[in-house]
Amino acid sequence: MNQDQKRKITIYDTTLRDGAQGEGIHFSTQDKLSYIKRIEDMGNLYVEAGWPGANPRDDEFFQQCRNLQSPLTSIVAFGSTCKVMESPEKSEILLKLLASGAKTIAIFGKTWDLHVRDVLRTTLEENLRIIRESVSFLLQQGRDVFFDAEHFFDGFKENPDYALKCISAALDGGAKTIVLCDTNGGSLPGEISLGVRAVKKDFSPQELGIHVHNDRGLAVANSLIAVEAGVTQIQGTWNGFGERCGNANLSTLIPLLQLKGDYDVVSDAALLKITAFSRYVAELTNAPFDEKQPFVGRSAFAHKAGMHVDAILKNQRTFEHMNPAEVGNERRILISDQAGKANILERLRRFEPEMRKDDPRVEIAMNEIKELEHNGYQFEAAEGSLDLLLLRTLGKLSTPMFEVLDYHVWSDPLRGELDSVAVVKVKVGEETVQIASEGNGPVNALDTALRQALAKFFPILGKSELVNYKVRVLDGSHGTEAIVRVIIDTRLENEVWGTIGVSKNILRASAQALLDAINWTIWSGR
Known about the structure:
The chain is α/β, with parallel strands linked by helices. It is built from 18 helices and 16 strands. It has an eight-stranded parallel beta barrel with strand order 1-2-3-4-5-6-7-8, surrounded by eight helices. Strands 11-12-13 form a three-stranded antiparallel β-sheet. The protein has a three-stranded antiparallel β-sheet with strand order 14-15-16. β7 (207-212), α9 and β8 form a beta-alpha-beta unit. The chain is elongated, with a radius of gyration of 28 Å.
């Protein structure tokens, strides 16, 4: 279908406000300002940035964001209607929304009669008044007003006439956009479709939006069914961040709508950046990134079974529903004890593109990997160590880049924060260097000492950093003599990879993983 013929869907991003209500999610003022600059990559979006007056951080943000040049981003201030028995002109909530300077304001109001009676503790007519007059007041001040119909679908199920009266009150006040909210996240797709169609039948808002939570794991499905029923704006958060089980996941919804639903959502250029942006949001919040997310996760196009890999290398469509490059992602061929020659060959071709399946080095690498995994190694999460193994198989690491002649580590918990000391002796070419370094724990001390000893020979080490350290006991039946697996994640610019070590000695396993991390960093920078 021609791009001009596709139905346009507007994106309303509430990561900075609703997403920040998620457990463990926090944005500083500077985080929010950085976010606003970066979100330009996604094109024309509404960004709900906070609730002015709710906390000093949001007040500071709206004050500072007035100086931002954001031609593609519409910054939205969020709040509620005026209070019961209160005039909008005297409402502190509404006046602070106006003082934020935001051109677009979103306010929520109750549409479920249960909330009107038990939460607001007022009459149904008074609730309609505060909705209508709050919207009208903001509109008279020259603002675009979005009305969030809070708990609409629960209200529509129990008292449909009143829920629709609330929509009518907001439209009578002049609301530009009506947003139907499944605030409890408990509605089923059929209930979402019924509610949207009822609003479409009785009213003609300039724009109709959907805002759903994920308490039943249906936020994405409910957003899709709402679009099919006629909404033109989807609200959600990147990576599905949000209160309780989260919000509708924009990282999934945007490519679903554009690539599978044939809607016009973002530009093709923005779609190419969606994986990188999704990861950026996780990094900004210091939250773990879910690698099993559709479209943007590292596992989304990862293939492990040998027969699957063999098929996909012959025809991508056999086991991939789309080209991962369309969303800025990539195919990954996983290597494990289940791997066949096709898996190994595809990985080896990164270093020797013309290698054939009958090359004896393919089977040599496959057998070595299977033997190591039998002994506790796991290369799915340690691609750096895997690639070093393959390079050695190909004879490309016959001469080591450096040699560790000796290392010693001491740890004393009573020393304070820097409780450990490591001494390392390394040789690079004909030159020998010995370094002692303190650290917060033995692994940190050893990592610091190795990097300091090697930095003058390999400056790229100064650009990389250890970002994760994981230990797993492989057989607890042996107690303190159990074999442990250590996986270390290292970041170099935007790339992150894992390396692995396995031993009964946790420090030796850590040293193996650290040395692989350093070796792969040096090789990557060649």
